[in-house]
Structure formats: C-alpha cells, structure tokens
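Quick one: structure for this chain?
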Amino acid sequence: MKTGIFSPTRACRRARHTTWRQLNAVGAVIVGLLAAGCAGNRPGEIAGPQAAAANQGIGQSTAADFDAGVPLAYYQLSLEFSKSTAGFTPPVQARAFGYMGLALYESVIGGMPDNRSVASQLHGVGALPDANGIPYNWPLVANAALAEVMRGLWGDQTNKATDNIAALNALESNLASQYGAGIPPGIAKLSSDFGRSVGAAVFATSRDDGGDRSYLTNFPTSYVPPVGPAFWVPTATGQVAMQPFWGATVGTFALSRAAECDPGPPPAYSEDPSSAFYGEANLDYQISKSLTPEQITIARYWADGPGTISGPGHALAIVGEIVMQQHASLAQAAEAYARAGIADADALTAIWQAKYQYNLIRPITYIRRVIDPAFTPILPTPPFPEYVSAHSGQSAAVAATLEALFGDNVAFVDHAHDADGFASRSFNTIFDSAEEAGISRLYAGIHFQSGNLNGQALGRCVAAKVNGLSWRR
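Got it. Here's what it folds into:
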C-alpha cells in the first residue's frame, strides 16, 4: 500500500456532501459545495467563502484555506459542453483538459507556498503572469482563470460558442458573488483581473501547439491509410479515420515527444490458429458469445461515445469524485486537476501516435475475415486503429496521477452516468476503475487484450513523467 502526497487528509472520513448528480444544475452548484473540512487535520482548514471573508482573505489566506467549489463547478460545466459541442473527440477534449488544469494551477500557485510553477517545465508553454506576492483572493482568481481559458477553448469557433460563453459568463458571475462576499472590492477586482490574465495567457500559448481549433479538423480527407492484411480499414460505410495526424503534429506537455512512452509493437499479425494474434482475436470472439449481464453493463457504462461526456470526460469526472470525497482544498484540487489534465492530454497524444504508427486492424475486421463472418460486437467500433486502447491508456494515466496524490487504497463510487440511467459503480481503489474501463473494451468487442494491457502501460508511463515534474519546493 502506498500513501499519497495528500494522504493526511484521509483522516477525515465524514460523509460526502455532494455528488455529480447534485451538480447537474450548474447554476446552483456552489450551494452544495461549501462542505467544511476537518479541523486540525492539516494546516489551513478548507473554508467556505464566508469563513474566508471573516478572515478578509488578505495577506493571510492561502489556496489551502478554501474549498474546491470553483474548479468542481467549471469541470462539471465542461462535461455538459462535451455533450453538445461538436468536434470534441477524445484527443481534442483531453487537450482542453490539459490547458484547463494548467490555467487553474498556475493561477493559484501564488497561494500555494509549498508548490512551485510547472509552466517552465512543460514543452511549448510560454511565460505566464506571476502573482508577485500580491494578497489575492484565490477562489476569485481561479474563477476568472477557468472562465477565461474555457471561453477560448470551448468558445472561439465552436458550433456552440455563443451558448458556451453565455454559460461561462453566468457561472463566473455566480461564483464571484458567492466567493466575493465580504472581500474588499479592490482585492476582488485585482483577483479577478489577475486570474483572467492567466487564463488568457494559457489560451494564447495553446494556439501554436498544433491542435488549435482541432474540433474543426477531426476527419481530414487527405489521409491515405496503409494497405495490407494487418492494417486498419474503416469498419462502417463512409467511415473516415479520426485525427490521423494528431500524434505527429500536436505538441506534448510533460513528454519530450509523443513516442516517448511508445508501447512497442502488438503481436505479429497472423491467421494461424496457433498464433498469439489469432489467440487474442479468438478471446474476443469467445467473450462475445458468453457475455454476462454484468459484462454488458460494464461495456455500455464505459462506452462514452459521441454525444456523451466521452472517455477523457469520464476520467476527469472521477477526479471530481475524489476531490469531493477527500474534501480537498482549492490548492489540492488545483494540483489534482493539473496533473490529471496534463496526463490525460499527453496520454491521448501518445496513444494517437501509437495508433497511427502501428495502424492495427480492429477485432471486427479480423474476426469476420478469419473466424466468423457473422460476428457483431455490442458497441460500434470507433473510426481509428486498434493499438493501443485509448480507454485503457488515458484512464490509467489519470488514475496513476490521482493515486500519487491521494494513495493507492482510496475506495470511491463513480457517479459519472447517474443521469444517464446507469447505477453508480463502486471501486476499491482508483486504479481499479481504470482497469474496468480497459476490460470494458474487450467486452464490447472493440479491442484486443494487448491493446488494453499495453495501453495501461503507456498510461502509467505518461503518469510517471507528469508526477516526476517538480511540483514541490
């Protein structure tokens, strides 16, 4: 058992006050998020805005003195955006989470005396505004930073720009009223202006990473896939490869290059029944013929396809669950979202690099060709190559960053799909959820076992790079 950096907060075992179901009405989110921390369990109790106001929030408070209501509200709103904003495919969405986490963390780093900025340690991130010791109100800073960077990421030229920006403006105003209560107007304005400057700077530095407005270019018709029996082919009429150039053109954050966590090649292609490749395909086929109701539920629960919160969104929803369950402070939430977002973004870029480097055939194509022409998976196969599994890789990357912070023995309940008619799912550890996400793709007939396991290994590699940054002084 490994304890995490934040492990002392686990002494607080009070009942969770808020779930994602209660956060569906984003405008009322703060009412349910002012859960007090546990007195005496750490320096700087988690304080709601009224408690901070009593202290004036001037010159004495750090980001650890405030609750995580601000980031929780914005990340919940981002999940709603994911359902309705066209083009936020997994790599595009994960990239947005990377920049959101960076903006959040860097905006409040001046109120985190034990932490250091990571901006200079990341590739392609320009200079960001510095707090310079000014006694800001950190929730107001975070509020403005997230609103501003999200106006760029989820506004700009998206099909829902007007609606998304209006929702962000309304949330920013609501939170400013809640967390600005009792704060001198001058400090409130300085705090919001500073946060807005960080959010704007982070969005500006995102614009030359190769992924700007990538929600408009998911399916380039210029891509010509390689030809051969082992290679991916479209699995449905009219299907076009999704983001085939992502791994080669989009920059990474913590990784030196997209291939730094290359998982190595998949098993050699073969149609010989005694071969390892045939064995993996046959495993998928045999599973498909005897799926239990629980396995079908798992496959559908983790489907996270178009029009949903998507796979990266599901991983970030789990971050929110852990933040709430652990009664994390604003400081802890900022670091958790930053690590998870950067890991998610780099994992998806590394995964997409592997997918189009190895360009492996999907199970549906192989099984219909070699084993059973009538094979039909229970979920549609996504429009990109098999190896490695994005579900496995990005879920593992996020889970491993969370376990580095909170420990590897944190049980939790996933409520990500409560509103979609699914029962919540319980896990004994955070990484258990990543393993279930990975195996769900075998149940769905979408991935081979090597794509799952090597995807998890890639995710752990990415998390190690992110966790290896100098986050502490």
